[in-house]
Amino acid sequence: MDALVHELRESILDGRLPGGTSLPESEVAGRYEVARPTARAAIERLVSQGLLTRGTHKTARVPVFDAADVADLYLTRAVLESQVMRELARRRRVPPDALAAQEEIRAAGTDWTTAIVEPDVRFHRALVDALGSPRLSRAHGALMAEMRLCMAQVQAFRLLRAAEIADEHDAILAAVAAGDPDRAEAALDHHLDRARHELVGHLS
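Request: output the structure for the sequence above.
Response:
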């Protein structure tokens, strides 16, 4: 089942299964040559991760994010990640994995590109994981699975430039390295607020 979950997940995130696509269990079972219970279990796992939605007795679908969804995702991220930035700054802890992800974003160039979605997610995941809290990492991981899909769908509208994202990440890392919790939180808030404003404005 894990292989099926992976294949469906990648198809959703890279747009091969665009927002609004329905995924009946029988169709998934036939397309991927698996038993129907396996297809059902894979779909349920993706529903639990926020990558599919399904009402009672309804066929699963790839979500389509509206302005309210985007605003709520960014609000939740801001509440969680702002405290992470403050704690990392107190410890002056800049995780190597965040630096590696930042290098990938810089390498993507200066313009818009969907190629920044994965390293951007890894950047923020690395910051949260650096605190060493399994519960916090699990909560953030579930949130970012849904966020990754949102970003992949919306970034296709060419709204967020790689260079601007990288510059804002640099500001966050500099504040953390300097041991300045207030500046680290403010840098994160600016980063998330700008993205939220661009995305919500486009979808409204």
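The mean pLDDT is 91.
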